[in-house]
Structures
1.
Amino acid sequence: MKPLKVAVIGGGSTYTPELVDGFIRYYEELPIESIYLQDTDTNRLEIVGGLARRMLARIGVRLCTTTDRAEALHGADFVVTQLRVGGMAARALDERIPLDYGVIGQETTGPGGFAKALRTVPVMLEIARDVSQLAPQAWLINFTNPSGLITEAILRHTDVKAVGLCNVPINMVRTIAQALEVDPSRIELDYVGLNHLSWARRVWLDGEDVTARLLETAALWHGEFSPTLLQQWGMVPNYYLRYFVHTNHVLEEQQNGPQTRAEYLQEVEAELLRLYQDPNLNEKPTLLETRGGAFYSTAAVELIRAIAQDRREVHIVNVQNGSAMPDLPPESVVEVPAVISKSGPHPLAAGPLPASIRGLVVS
């Protein structure tokens, strides 16, 4: 296969070194010719781009930084979107304002998540239309939150080939593997739902159903979900379900906390940008792990590899529903396992939702 051009929109994000690290780790399997980092913030672009360039020097991949979206997109094979309209300051408002009215403040769910979607959808549609003109052959890999809503907007209103991606499923696999003390490659999930509103209906270890065993593993849940609720569901829940089923507890936790998640991350980002400026730093710093987004690079690069090499692997992605989940409209974007080939994601049939979760998902 020919070496690829990858454009990263929102390339000034502090997440970018994580993504670059993934391209480095997979370089022998997925040759990259050039990576273009595009951002509207020139200061962050210079800082993050400097570190990315030092990291990539070891494998000889060309890195370009630009504020010109057209330059970044022109002829790209893959476009990764990881932007935050309004920056972390807007996220802080999304989380703080709901709390003032006695409602959970969270960046992807509730009023905070909806506010973020309203800010982000118009910008993402502009980007998608540019992709359509400048890189019509490209696949757009969307990490921008709320990933399901953003991906659905792109697929409904443009002709761009887009897949939404979240690091929650890959983290679930690794959490389960750690609890069972096995390699993650031995774990398979029957996963169903929407982005940040999903469950693993079944978990298999080497083909053996270990779901019931996991639901009895108290250490896996850290008190997040009661044994009674887990038995009622009979499924392994996504961490974000705490915002839906333990609303009062989470609200009290947030109202009594010293700061919101965004306010904390503003401090982390300031320190990361300071670290990134060290001319001797040529790898992602360990502090980046506190930023969130664990295994983001693994999920992204393995998905790109699967499309580029027509590997026909199963990945859990945000994809247009079609007939995969008959409880939802065909044009909805759902988070389910899909076979990934050179023609993109092909969702596996999930069948009807269990009665215990159907109302929450379809409402």
2.
Amino acid sequence: MKNLYKSLAKFQKELKGIPKDSSGYGYKYCKLETLIKIVTPILNKNGLVLIQSIDTDEQSRLPSVKTTLAHIDSGEAIESWTPVSEVKLGSMNLYQSVGAGITYYRRYALAGMLGIAPDEDIDANDDPAPASVSSTKKPMMSNANYKNILMSAKAKQKEKKNWKQIQALISENFVIDIEQLQKLEKELYG
């Protein structure tokens, strides 16, 4: 994963900002189309490719957005799956609502995967997101927390948890930057 993390860090340094080119529900955000146009050339320049596809979650049977960030030369990849709630929105029929949900989740999955913010903080507003999206802010992982996380990750490793599972457990509680993630992976796997 070293190649992917290194290229992602370069991408993040090169990305200058995301324009908030749309507004709705009392906040401004960057449309998915604009976000893709901005990030794709910088990703490609750094040897990365981002793929998003729609599938069905086997457990919930809901549509799901699968987001994959891959390092082109090494084949290293990070994946995430985000189930899309089937919630009828306003005057839209269910299919239109699901389509809007897919676009919404694609934008947030893409931004989350790349570590970028495509919109304003809406915590102070009425959250237009479906109930399954949490607006609770997670703290940044500090150096003080790092030792505890490392011990916990080593315990999870002994329980036969793989790296993706360990990453998911950390991400549930903390915002972690790429350098911390690389350091943690190196300490766990050499």
3.
Amino acid sequence: DASHELRTPLSILMTALEVLATDRNTVFSPFAGQMISDIKDEIRKMSKIVSNMLTLARADAGVNVLYKEEFDLVPVVKQVVRAMHPLAVSKGTGLRCRTPERVLVYADKEKLKQLLQILIDNGIKYTPVEGTVEISVDFSPKQATAVTVTVRDTGIGIAEEHRKFIFERFYRIDKVRSRKEGGTGLGLAIARWITEAHGGKIEVDSTPGQGSRFIVNLPAVKIVD
């Protein structure tokens, strides 16, 4: 299928470069070694673009099936935060997490992980050194069947004229910075699709120069303090 046709050549290229880089019989100059590293980075970016495009293509075709199950969202959130922590450290950004004791949801666990990764990655990407990204899980007593996941950052913020387009495919506010950071312009579009596929809603609230809040409202099975 299309996935195989697009991903296989990239996998072959990456494997070939890794074999070349670890060949003890070949000595590379610092420049050549850096070139190999740069090419591997570009292949990773291409693989990410292919994966994101395939996700949205399947969504458009109605074949991107959700594998729903009942599970506690809190350990999933904490797992994603742990996984993203090294990236935050490398960028000099603080990463915090605030959750209740337990939140039961009926959802596709892997898709929600992807949603969280996209939003946290986006926050880290656009938050300067010594800034903070915080993910929180809350619920409204008036709506005991709804859970709100908020990813808040102290980053550069999003101007009002850009906010209505932020979830559109390939929309990038700062194209130069986004390209430098490895952005594809597809992450937030996928975040919106995952949210809406679960019967939820995603919104953004932002102040330029102060930061942004991405707010995801999802159905919950049960919430325990």
